[in-house]
Specification:
The complex is a heterotrimer. By secondary structure, chain A is mainly α. In chain A, 79% of the residues lie in helices and 0% in strands. Chain C has one domain. Classes of the chains: A mainly alpha, B alpha/beta, C mainly alpha.
Chain lengths: 244, 203, 218
């Protein structure tokens, strides 16, 4: 019994059918409780007023935007090394979810930034890095769609994910360097990661983060199942056509 | 060169399985079979452009010169420049057998883009002579050649075989060269055969 | 390898090879900038290093989709795969040919276009240095992108979408060198970063490009 047996598409489908109800339920509970508690059960911030509450969407989305890419990186490596189809398809399935998470993080950041910084958009290193991440997701998804042969597409996108990861990290440091070079000593208070959050905000935030993580997992498992069924259909069709 | 129990796939679907044959120096082997039978796929595998699903190909590596439908010619280079490029890539220097063998000497300084289809094909086949490789793997070598050019090709091929080379071809034309025939339709893969095709895991 | 380099250079220089197109594109971009932002000398001077870097980068991008697609069309790419050349080397040579026919002319033309954009006096040298150091990275990264999209019909737009994000670090460090140089500041830190980035990319990317090319053509 090893973990790798679930790299078999059929076994994966069977497992995912069993765990999905629980996964969806947990995701709904954690996300719902985290968000509701955050929105209605916490006091307004002394300085930021009620605008601070967008944090319960912004931070979990940003967290999952990065983790989704990281998961794709690991899945790509597994595909390149061990050639398990489920791994490649899971990476494919995760990309649009990661893209949407990045988009949520960017949009909520802009909405939060407007009252706080007085502008919808600032070329702050963190914001800019997320925009770059967004572009990497777009390119990755576009490459999946452009290549016809599914295995070739898996190969090419996996390498793109590896190379893209290196360049994404490089870009992150380059952007930090570039921004300091532009306006020294920016006073913009960047996301709460640097600050300690008071307990009253912290627990609902952790709930929401867990909820988003579970939601991501549920979506990826579901979408991977869809991709597997698509491949299965086309594999069966190809054989039918040859048999006829 | 020895091919044993080879299975090949096109687009993730197995097309041929259990192909075995041997090709000794001085021998030619002609592949026959209807369109879509997998002749091109088999040739590409032997040329190293595609991985077989299973089976072994021995004695082919770095000994194969491959020619397919596209001749790899640059329209803006002359006939001589095209040939000398490939000669240099394969570490050869003598172009004259190639130029003489296919009667290309009068065309040597013409741009390849100004040649007719048959002349281009002759140039594409002449490229084989400057590779210095002993095993020719040819996919429909006589496409767009007229009767005279086919005869030229036949005589070059006879010379190649007489010099200890060998050739593996997919062609329907009788070249006037003594050759074994392998009908690939005998090796047609069963549609549901489990040969490790890339999508077999999904069945 | 030398034969491949000479062939690519010869092809680029012959009619229809596209040599000079990148240069003309660079000139047009630089010419369009004052039309779009106004002819004010001070403004032009402030944005000149960035505009010149961006123009050079886009001009480099322009010819990438020909880099391997033409060889694929006429079949010579497959024949090269069966040749006794290591594919990594062949791609490095093709990237070098791309740089010699596209990047190098841009580098040499940039200071003249800098004059048109009122680039401050010490900036010309720094612009030249930064472009000379940075454009090889653009060619090599572009070769990877071309290898990635070689089997795709009408992959030109996709190529841009994939390659441009990879150009970000090079652009940031390169433009920073030019900007600091033009402003009379110390540019050694971004210069070292740029040089390191280019060296790393030139050393590693041909391997990645060869890997994806083998995958794509299989």
């Amino acid at each position: 019994m090893s973990l790798w047996q679930y790299a078999n598409p059929v076994k994966f489908l069977a497992l995912s059918a069993r765990v999905q109800p629980a996964l969806w339920a947990l995701a709904a509970v954690f996300t719902g409780v985290g968000l509701l508690w955050g929105f209605f059960g916490t006091p307004d911030d002394a300085r930021q007023g009620s605008t601070v509450k967008i944090i319960y969407l912004h931070v979990p989305a940003a967290l999952m935007a990065i983790n989704a890419w990281f998961m794709m990186l690991v899945a790509s490596l597994i595909w390149l090394i061990r050639r398990h189809h489920v791994s490649a398809l899971a990476a494919k399935a995760a990309a649009p979810v990661g893209l949407v998470m990045t988009l949520i993080a960017l949009v909520t950041g802009a909405i939060w930034g407007q009252p706080m910084w007085g502008t919808w958009w600032a070329w702050d290193p963190r914001l800019t890095s997320f925009l770059i991440l967004f572009l990497f997701y777009l390119g990755y998804i576009a490459l999946w769609q452009a290549v016809e042969d599914p295995d070739t597409a898996a190969d090419l996108t996996s390498v793109l994910c590896l190379v893209g990861s290196v360049f994404a990290v490089l870009s992150r440091y380059a952007v930090q360097f570039w921004n300091q070079g532009l306006h020294q000593g920016t006073s913009i208070p960047v996301a709460t990661g640097n600050r300690s959050v008071a307990d009253v905000f912290f627990y609902p935030l952790v709930m929401a983060m867990l909820g988003f993580g579970l939601l991501f997992l549920a979506l990826v498992v579901y979408r991977t199942g869809t991709e597997i069924r698509l491949r299965r259909t086309s594999a069966l069709r190809a054989r039918m056509n040859r048999g006829a | 060169m020895q091919v044993s129990d080879l299975s090949v796939a096109r687009g993730g679907v197995p097309v041929l399985s259990g192909v075995s044959f041997a090709l000794a120096p001085g021998e030619a082997l002609v592949l026959r079979g209807p369109n879509g039978a997998g002749k091109t796929t088999l040739l590409r595998c032997i040329a190293g452009l595609q991985e077989p699903l299973s089976g072994r190909i021995e004695g082919a590596e770095d000994r194969v010169a491959y020619a397919a439908h596209a001749d790899g010619l640059k329209a803006m280079l002359t006939v001589r420049e095209n040939l000398s490029f490939w000669a240099q890539v394969f570490g050869m220097s003598d172009l004259s057998p190639a130029l003489d063998g296919y009667a290309l000497r009068p065309l040597a300084d013409r741009l390849a883009g100004t040649l007719s289809a048959g002349q281009k094909r002759r140039l594409g086949l002449a490229r084989l002579l400057v590779t210095g490789r002993p095993i020719w793997v040819l996919d429909e070598p006589t496409v767009s050649l007229d009767a005279d050019a086919v005869a030229l090709f036949g005589s070059v091929l006879r010379g190649h075989l007489a010099a200890g080379g060998s050739a593996l071809m997919a062609t329907h034309i009788d070249l006037g060269v003594e050759a074994q025939v392998l009908d690939v339709s005998a090796y047609r893969a069963a549609p549901d055969a489990d040969l490790g095709a890339s999508d077999a895991a999904f069945l | 390898m030398r034969a491949l380099l000479l062939r690519d250079l010869r092809l680029a220089l012959r009619a229809g090879g596209g040599f000079g197109l990148g240069l003309a594109f660079f000139l047009i971009v630089v010419m369009l900038v004052p039309f779009s932002v106004g002819p004010e000398a001070q403004l032009l001077q402030a944005i000149a290093p960035g505009v010149l870097w961006l123009g050079a980068l886009l001009a480099c991008l322009l010819s990438l989709d020909r880099l391997l697609a033409l060889d694929l069309e006429d079949g010579s790419l497959e024949l090269l795969l069966t040749a006794p050349l290591p594919l990594e080397g062949a791609l490095a040579v093709k990237a070098l040919a791309h740089w010699l026919t596209t990047g190098l002319p841009l580098v040499l033309a940039a200071p003249f276009l800098g004059v048109m954009l009122q680039l401050a006096a010490p900036g010309h040298l720094w612009l030249l240095i930064s472009l000379a150091l940075g454009t090889p990275a653009l060619s090599v990264i572009g070769t990877f992108g071309a290898a990635l999209t070689v089997g795709i019909k009408r992959g030109g737009l996709l190529l841009s979408l994939l390659v441009l994000p990879l150009y970000i670090p090079t652009l940031i460090f390169g433009a920073e060198v030019a900007r600091r140089g033009a402003a009379g500041l110390d540019a050694s830190t971004p210069l070292l970063m740029l040089a390191g980035l280019t060296l790393a990319v030139v050393a590693l990317m041909p391997f990645a490009a060869a890997a994806v090319l083998r995958m794509g053509l299989r």
